[in-house]
Amino acid sequence: MVAIPVTRAIWIDSEELHESYTRASGPGGQHVNTTDSAVLLRFDVANSPSLPDAVKARLAVLAGSRLTREGVLVLRSEGARSQLLNRQEVRERLVELIREATIVPKKRRPTKPTRASQTRRVEGKARRSAVKAGRGKVRD
Protein backbone atom coordinates (compact mmCIF):
# COMPACT_ATOMS: atom_id res chain seq x y z
CA MET A 1 0.00 0.00 0.00
CA VAL A 2 1.74 3.12 -1.29
CA ALA A 3 0.23 6.57 -0.88
CA ILE A 4 0.68 9.16 -3.63
CA PRO A 5 1.02 12.74 -2.34
CA VAL A 6 -1.16 15.32 -4.07
CA THR A 7 -1.10 18.19 -1.56
CA ARG A 8 -0.13 18.42 2.10
CA ALA A 9 -3.62 17.35 3.12
CA ILE A 10 -4.54 14.98 0.28
CA TRP A 11 -2.90 11.61 -0.35
CA ILE A 12 -4.25 8.97 -2.70
CA ASP A 13 -3.86 5.32 -1.84
CA SER A 14 -2.36 3.46 -4.80
CA GLU A 15 -4.98 0.75 -4.29
CA GLU A 16 -7.62 3.25 -5.46
CA LEU A 17 -5.94 3.34 -8.88
CA HIS A 18 -6.72 0.59 -11.37
CA GLU A 19 -4.26 0.29 -14.22
CA SER A 20 -4.58 -1.83 -17.31
CA TYR A 21 -2.11 -2.20 -20.12
CA THR A 22 -2.75 -2.40 -23.84
CA ARG A 23 -0.81 -2.16 -27.05
CA ALA A 24 -0.03 1.41 -28.04
CA SER A 25 -0.81 2.82 -31.44
CA GLY A 26 1.53 4.76 -33.69
CA PRO A 27 5.13 4.22 -34.81
CA GLY A 28 7.50 1.80 -33.12
CA GLY A 29 7.81 -1.13 -35.50
CA GLN A 30 7.90 -4.62 -34.06
CA HIS A 31 8.33 -3.26 -30.53
CA VAL A 32 4.92 -1.59 -30.49
CA ASN A 33 3.30 -4.72 -31.90
CA THR A 34 4.61 -7.00 -29.15
CA THR A 35 4.53 -5.01 -25.90
CA ASP A 36 1.65 -3.69 -23.82
CA SER A 37 3.18 -0.28 -23.19
CA ALA A 38 0.04 1.90 -23.20
CA VAL A 39 -1.45 2.53 -19.74
CA LEU A 40 -5.15 3.04 -19.02
CA LEU A 41 -5.62 4.45 -15.51
CA ARG A 42 -9.02 4.40 -13.79
CA PHE A 43 -9.68 6.38 -10.62
CA ASP A 44 -13.10 6.24 -8.95
CA VAL A 45 -13.60 9.89 -8.04
CA ALA A 46 -17.16 9.47 -6.78
CA ASN A 47 -16.30 6.78 -4.21
CA SER A 48 -12.79 7.91 -3.25
CA PRO A 49 -12.33 8.34 0.51
CA SER A 50 -9.17 10.39 -0.12
CA LEU A 51 -10.88 13.41 -1.70
CA PRO A 52 -13.13 15.97 0.02
CA ASP A 53 -16.54 16.49 -1.57
CA ALA A 54 -15.70 20.01 -2.79
CA VAL A 55 -12.61 18.71 -4.62
CA LYS A 56 -14.68 15.87 -6.13
CA ALA A 57 -17.17 18.38 -7.52
CA ARG A 58 -14.49 20.63 -9.05
CA LEU A 59 -12.64 17.58 -10.41
CA ALA A 60 -15.82 16.38 -12.12
CA VAL A 61 -16.06 19.72 -13.92
CA LEU A 62 -12.37 19.80 -14.84
CA ALA A 63 -12.32 16.19 -16.07
CA GLY A 64 -15.15 16.75 -18.53
CA SER A 65 -15.50 13.84 -20.95
CA ARG A 66 -12.75 11.87 -19.19
CA LEU A 67 -15.21 11.17 -16.36
CA THR A 68 -17.72 8.35 -16.87
CA ARG A 69 -21.37 8.47 -15.73
CA GLU A 70 -20.41 6.33 -12.73
CA GLY A 71 -17.84 8.94 -11.63
CA VAL A 72 -14.72 7.08 -12.77
CA LEU A 73 -11.90 9.20 -14.19
CA VAL A 74 -10.17 7.49 -17.14
CA LEU A 75 -6.74 8.64 -18.30
CA ARG A 76 -4.62 7.04 -21.04
CA SER A 77 -0.92 7.41 -21.83
CA GLU A 78 0.86 5.83 -24.75
CA GLY A 79 3.47 8.44 -25.67
CA ALA A 80 6.56 6.59 -24.47
CA ARG A 81 7.85 3.22 -25.62
CA SER A 82 8.22 2.12 -22.01
CA GLN A 83 5.30 0.98 -19.87
CA LEU A 84 7.04 2.39 -16.80
CA LEU A 85 7.35 5.87 -18.34
CA ASN A 86 3.71 5.79 -19.43
CA ARG A 87 2.65 4.78 -15.88
CA GLN A 88 4.62 7.69 -14.41
CA GLU A 89 3.23 10.13 -16.97
CA VAL A 90 -0.42 9.13 -16.44
CA ARG A 91 -0.04 9.29 -12.64
CA GLU A 92 1.54 12.76 -12.89
CA ARG A 93 -1.40 13.90 -15.03
CA LEU A 94 -3.83 12.54 -12.43
CA VAL A 95 -2.04 14.31 -9.57
CA GLU A 96 -1.90 17.57 -11.54
CA LEU A 97 -5.61 17.37 -12.34
CA ILE A 98 -6.47 16.81 -8.67
CA ARG A 99 -4.16 19.66 -7.61
CA GLU A 100 -5.95 21.94 -10.05
CA ALA A 101 -9.28 20.86 -8.53
CA THR A 102 -8.09 21.78 -5.02
CA ILE A 103 -7.77 25.45 -6.01
CA VAL A 104 -10.92 27.27 -4.95
CA PRO A 105 -11.83 29.91 -7.55
CA LYS A 106 -12.34 33.43 -6.25
CA LYS A 107 -15.89 34.72 -6.38
CA ARG A 108 -16.36 37.63 -8.72
CA ARG A 109 -17.67 40.75 -7.07
CA PRO A 110 -19.61 42.77 -9.61
CA THR A 111 -18.45 46.39 -9.88
CA LYS A 112 -19.83 49.46 -11.58
CA PRO A 113 -17.74 51.76 -13.78
CA THR A 114 -16.81 55.01 -12.06
CA ARG A 115 -18.54 58.25 -13.04
CA ALA A 116 -15.24 59.60 -14.45
CA SER A 117 -14.76 56.53 -16.67
CA GLN A 118 -18.35 56.83 -17.93
CA THR A 119 -17.76 60.51 -18.74
CA ARG A 120 -14.50 59.70 -20.59
CA ARG A 121 -16.29 57.01 -22.59
CA VAL A 122 -19.11 59.36 -23.64
CA GLU A 123 -16.65 62.17 -24.51
CA GLY A 124 -14.60 59.74 -26.62
CA LYS A 125 -17.73 58.68 -28.49
CA ALA A 126 -18.64 62.33 -29.12
CA ARG A 127 -15.13 63.06 -30.48
CA ARG A 128 -15.30 60.04 -32.75
CA SER A 129 -18.75 61.07 -33.94
CA ALA A 130 -17.46 64.57 -34.79
CA VAL A 131 -14.55 63.09 -36.78
CA LYS A 132 -16.89 60.88 -38.78
CA ALA A 133 -19.39 63.72 -39.31
CA GLY A 134 -16.57 65.81 -40.80
CA ARG A 135 -16.01 63.18 -43.52
CA GLY A 136 -19.20 64.04 -45.39
CA LYS A 137 -19.46 65.48 -48.89
CA VAL A 138 -18.22 69.01 -49.40
CA ARG A 139 -21.03 71.43 -50.24
CA ASP A 140 -20.46 74.33 -52.62
Number of domains: 1
Low-confidence stretches: none
The helicity comes to: 40-55%
What's the N-to-C terminus distance?
Answer: 93 Å
Mean pLDDT: 89
Radius of gyration: 27 Å
Strand content: 15-25%
Number of strands: 5
Report the total helices: 4
Strand order of the largest sheet: 3-4-5
CATH fold node name = Double Stranded RNA Binding Domain
The sequence of SSEs as H and E is EEEHEHEHH
The appropriate CATH architecture is: 2-Layer Sandwich
**Biggest pleated-sheet summary:** 3 strands, antiparallel
Protein name: Ribosome-associated protein
Pfam families: RF-1
Region (Disordered): 105-140
InterPro entries: Pep_chain_release_fac_I
Topology:
Blueprint: E1 3-5, E2 11-13, E3 17-22, H1 29-34, E4 38-44, H2 53-63, E5 72-77, H3 83-102, H4 115-133
Antiparallel strand pairs: 1-2, 3-4, 4-5
What key attributes describe this structure?
4 helices; 40% helix
What does this structure look like?
It comes from Sphingomonas abaci. A hairpin with a 5-residue loop joins β1 and β2. The protein has one domain: 2-Layer Sandwich (Double Stranded RNA Binding Domain). The protein is an alpha+beta fold and 140 residues long. It is elongated. The chain starts with a strand and ends in a 7-residue tail after the last helix. A three-stranded antiparallel sheet has the order 3-4-5, with helices on one face. Strands 1-2 form a two-stranded antiparallel ribbon.
